[in-house]
Amino acid sequence: TGPNGALEATHPLALAPVTGPASNVDGFVRQFLRNLNYERGVPLSASSPNDQYFAFAMTVRDYLMARWLEDLRRQRVTQSKSVCYLSAEYLLGRQLDNNLLASGLTDIATEAMAQCGIDIEELRAQEVEPGLGNGGLGRLAACFIDSLATMSVPNIGYGIRYEYGIFRQTFVDGQQVEQPDAWLELGSPWEFPHPEFAQTISFGGHTETYDDEGVTRSRWVPSWNVRAVPYNYMVPGYLNGRVNTLRLWSAQATNSFDLRVFNSGDYEEAVRAQTYAENISKVLYPEDSTPQGKELRLQQQYFFVAASIHDFLDHMVADDFGLENLADRVIFQLNDTHPVIAVPELMRVLVDEKKLEWDAAWAITQKCFAYTCHTLLPEALEVWSVELLGRLLPRHLEIIYRINEEFLLEVRERFGDDEIRLRDMSIIGEFPERSVRMAYLATVAGAKVNGVAELHSQLLRDKVLPDFNEFFPGKFTNVTNGITPRRFIRLANPELSELITSALGTGWLTDLERLRGLESYAEDPDFRAAFREVKAANKRVLSDVLRARDGFEVSDGHMLDVMVKRLHEYKRQMLKLLHIVTVYEGIVSGRVDAASVQPRTFIFGAKAAPGYAMAKRIIHLINAVGSVVNADERVQGRLKVLFPQNYNVTLAERLIPAADLSEQISLAGKEASGTGNMKFALNGALTIGTDDGANVEIRQLVGDDNFFLFGMAEPEVEALWARGYKPAEFYQHDESLRRAMDLIASGAFSGGDRSVFEPVVSNLLYDDRFMVLADYASYIEAQAKVDAAHADEDAWTRSAILNVARCGFFSSDRSMRDYIDRIWHTPPAF
Ligand code: T68
């Protein structure tokens, strides 16, 4: 029975899932104290909030443990098909509340802490969110694994345990300064390291051929390696007793690394070598849409996918499971191109290690992968120089060449010697340097390729990869993104959740289309009043958060107009800013009576990639405009610009439920989907947006009366480019735009220094890749409609309720069903 045998005997519930140690208040208290004493080594009286948070989290964890162990076992025993989600990013957000909710322990735990004299809010505040992602792509992965667990679909999420996640953003004189995100500083109660399941991952060296009983084979002779240590995290389904696994890899030096490979008899060199190895999982690259092509980044990618593939093959596939049937056991979903090096890795395993024929191996590989594309920006399509790839992974480069050779042979067979087409479709690009096009490799290897919203998938087929679409009929498909309603409605907006439940009963959280039932309530004045009260309560919560966190005061009675997302020119934070400056300029020039301006607070949240100079300048400008506008008495407090620093999942959960207006204003044809747009709509904000990404589908569902559409549609954008876009002409012909731009250029927001924001202004005037100026007039007009609509409180609330009622489609549970039906074919199991 081990050292805890006696304890288990006196507490027979200790290992059972449902009647576990924490399944009632008494049991929770006991287990909590036990964890405090035995895991933290402190008595309650001497414990710090961090001790208490740990013991509390461990108690929740203990409750889920038996189910987790059981589900891991069943996944192996039943050999039912699993989804292996390969993603370099998981933007999880805080875990405590989510795990409490999933296990149904919230009330018990709250009461238990009260009995211990502990404020559960203080414990919540202890948790540092794991920010292991940049933005939408990483958050999507986190939503998907939540939905898979909730739907009882076997899944392992594989990724990287970055020691430092997305940087912590601070503002110094309005400018972004990045600080390391030391999320592990105090440890994490949610992770389980398993060094005994470490994988050795090799790099470098050369390839050679050898004679294998009369057959000539290739093999890789690498020159260095690292150890990949898995850390497991629970992914509990919502109240269904299911616990899936997220497995993140951490890099450690191997003995051979410092002793053999870097052997110089030099102790200091050996230690340096160790640091080199451990660098691989040290930090998340903060570039969101523009990959930098750095060597360490390729090391990260290969490191985690190689470890994941070997982990799955070694531990999850039964020995007698024929490799030729591997696709009946697993689908590896490639979250963007970041894990695509998994394709040649699986080929290498099958051909070099398992000694399968090339064609047989290729047939298996083509069934085991599927690829999701998340972008339309050409500069975001990842390529690796042949020089680098060949140096780091020489055997993989050979395999990629062979895949390409055979693919181009087929293309030639189908289309003849069309050299232009062959050059365009080659996995190897020649310009500006010879390089591997990872999106092409993924497309050739994947059973399916999907975009993330209808418009995106259509543009992917027609504009980005048209030759491939023609060559592989039926390979391209769409799965519109979604968000988990557990985190982004139930946890983020408990008041709205209660109101919904009072109208519809329970069950809607796992069947979000039921929100349709709210449509009739939109006509009910009492319901509308209650809905408004929820929004008001959420604003009070936000106000408290922003006061404590940033020292901001949120004014009563303001419309909250929110734009939160990564800072990128294509997302057009500048357009939002031009609107603000336009309203402000109207007031200070005396043309507009401040008293006639609808009170609005504009809230921004955005991190800029540290190397993205223009994005950082725009952040500086937003802060500069905020300082001036907020301090100007002529505005009479009717406009406010707030830019809380370090926007993250935790802040999003407070901002979104309080928002009245959601800004989704990217240039049409640039935002693949967006997922923030869905979160706002489902929390009863109205959207002002372009016909881009999933906005298109949101508008179709909520109806034109409940959505503020503006700007060019994608074909118009194309047409304007084709005609020759001259932004300065828009400046010349639009007086309002000219005034706003001139005010910025005048130095009004930079203490009279005209040089500070000159690059922003001239970029808009003479380049404006994302057509801010072309859409300005339409945006201003739409904002006037927003003002008018907001003046009619009842009509606004009706629209807000209809947004909630009609957006059930955007549950990530539905996204998962679509993936399952169209791509994975993995039914729920055990
Ligand atoms: C986003 N992409 C899309 N990329 O921009 C967004 N990129 O429209 C979409 O809704 C979302 O994916 C989910 O599909 C990203 O977030 C990245 O974060 C990223 C990270 C590294 C390299 C490239």
Automatic annotation (TrEMBL):
Q: Which parts of the chain are coiled coil?
A: none
Question: Record's NCBIfam families?
Answer: P_ylase
At the top of the EC hierarchy, this enzyme's class is transferase
A GO molecular function assigned to this protein is: 1,4-alpha-oligoglucan phosphorylase activity
Q: Which family does it belong to?
A: Belongs to the glycogen phosphorylase family.
Instruction: Give the enzyme's EC designation.
Output: 2.4.1.1
Summary of the function given for this chain in its UniProt record: Allosteric enzyme that catalyzes the rate-limiting step in glycogen catabolism, the phosphorolytic cleavage of glycogen to produce glucose-1-phosphate, and plays a central role in maintaining cellular and organismal glucose homeostasis. Phosphorylase is an important allosteric enzyme in carbohydrate metabolism. Enzymes from different sources differ in their regulatory mechanisms and in their natural substrates. However, all known phosphorylases share catalytic and structural properties.
Give UniProt keywords alphabetically: Carbohydrate metabolism, Glycosyltransferase, Pyridoxal phosphate, Transferase
Instruction: Specify the species.
Output: Microbacterium fluvii
- Listed InterPro entries: Glycg_phsphrylas (IPR011833), Glyco_trans_35 (IPR000811), Pyridoxal_P_attach_site (IPR035090)
Q: Which residues cross the membrane?
A: none
In terms of Pfam families, this protein maps to: Phosphorylase
The entry's protein name is Alpha-1,4 glucan phosphorylase
Cofactor or coenzyme needed: pyridoxal 5'-phosphate
> CDD domains attached here?
GT35_Glycogen_Phosphorylase
Which catalytic reaction applies to this protein?
[(1->4)-alpha-D-glucosyl](n) + phosphate = [(1->4)-alpha-D-glucosyl](n-1) + alpha-D-glucose 1-phosphate
